[in-house]
Amino acid sequence: MLKKIFPNKIISLSNKWIVQLIVLTIIIFIVGLTYAIFISPPDYIQGDSVRIMYVHVPSSFISLGCFAFIGFACIINLIFKIKFMALIAKSLAPVGIVFTIISIVTGSLWGKPTWGVWWAWDARLTSMLILFIFYVAYLLSWKFIDDFQKANKISSIIGIIGLFNLPVIKYSVEWWNTLHQPSSITLTSAPTIHYTMLIPLFIMLLGMIVYSIVIFLMKYKIESMKFKLSKKK
Amino acid sequence: MLSKKAKSRFFYLILFIFSIALIFFLILKNLEDSVVYFFSPTEINNKPNISLNKKIRLGGLVKEGSVKKQNTSVNFIITDLKNEIIVTYNGLLPNLFSEGKGVVAEGKLNDKKYFIANKILAKHDENYMPPEVKEALEKAN
User: Is residue B141 part of a domain?
Assistant: First the structure.
C-alpha cells in the first residue's frame, strides 16, 4: 500500500507549500546572518574569522546527515525492494554534495588565517574529502547507468559502503591526533561555545535544514514524475 | 512478516556490511601511523627506532615563557605536560601562534630532544568565546 501511495502524494504536492517553505528559509537566513555577522561577538583569539563557523558547522552537519539518510534508504531498498526509497536517496544526494563542497571550502578559508594552511592531510579533512568522493560516485552511478534496476543496485552498494565513512569522520578527531579541533557541541557535556555564538549557529542550522528540505522535496517530486513516465512507456 | 527472498537478501546484506566494516577497520588500523597528523613528545620519546631524516610532525602546547625570538628565527618548547622537545624554526609564524596554545611543527628530528621545523601550524582548540568573557575568566582566576 505504501508503495502505491507515496510517490503519488509527492507528485500532487502543491507548489504553494514549496513557495511557503522558501519564504520561511529566506526569513530564517536573514535573521541568522544578521545575528552571525553583526550581533554575535568576535572570538577572543580568532577574531572575526569565527563567523565562518556559522556556515561551516551547519553545512558539515547536513552533508553527514544527508549521507546517513541515503545509506539507510539504500539498505531498506536492497532488502525490501521498495522503489521510492531509491528515489528518496537519489533526491537527497544533490543537497548533500553541495553542502559537502560548502563545508570543505569554508573550512579551507578558515584554515588559512587560523592554522596557516589551506589544506592539511589530517584524518578529519581527508575523511571529509572521501565523503565528497562517495557523493560523486553515487551520483555518477545514477547518471551513467541507463537501466534503472542496475543503477539502483550499484548506487545502493556505494551508499552502504559510504555509510562506514560517517563514524570515521565523526570520531576522527577523537581517535587520532588531528589538526582539526575536537567537537565543541557534544551530547555528553556542555558546549564549549559561548551562548552568544551558539544562538546564531543554531539559527543558521535551522535555516539550512529547511532549505535542504525544500530542495529535497522539489527534486523528489521531479524524480517521482520521471519514474512514473518511464514506467508508462 | 519478511518474505523468504527478503530474508535471504537481509542475510547477505548483513554479511556484506560486516565484511566492509572489517575492511575499513583493518585499513585504518594498518595506516595508524600515517592517519595521525602529528606525534606528541611522549609518543616520540616512546618510539624505539625513529628515523631522524624523515619528515615528521610534532604537536603539543607551546610551553609558557619558552618562546625566544632572534631576528627571524625562533626557539620554543613543545610540551604535552609529560615530555618536552625544543623546537627551532626560521620563518613567519601564524597569527594564532602563542604561548600556552596548541601548535604543530613540521620538520625533522635532530635527536629525541631537538626538532628543526620548516613549517609551523597553529592549532585551534574547541573553545569559542567573546574577549570580554575571556577577561572575566582570567580575573576570576
Answer: no
Q: Does A197 touch chain B (CB under 8 A)?
A: yes
Residue recorded with cell 565523503: A131
- Domains identified in chain B, total number: 2
Residue A167 sits at the chain B interface (C-beta within 8 Å): no
Quick check: A121 contacting B, CB < 8 Å?
A: yes
pLDDT digits (tens, 9 = 90+) for A99-151: 999 999 999 999 988 888 899 998 999 999 999 999 999 999 999 998 989 99
- Of the candidates B24, B120, B124, the beta carbon closest to that of A164 is on B24
CB burial class (10 A; 0-12, 13-18, 19+) of residue A78? buried
* ipTM score above 0.85: no
Cα dist. A140→A151, A166, B55 in Å? Answer: 9, 20, 38
Regarding whether B113 and B97 lie in a shared domain, the answer is: yes
In a domain, B137, yes or no: no
Residue B110 belongs to some domain of the structure: yes
Domain that holds residue B31: 1-35
In a shared domain, residues B73 and B10: no
The Cβ of residue A162 has, within 10 Å, a number of other Cβ atoms equal to 22
A47 to chain B, minimum CA–CA distance in Å?
9
Tell me the shortest Cα–Cα distance from B91 to chain A, in angstroms: 12
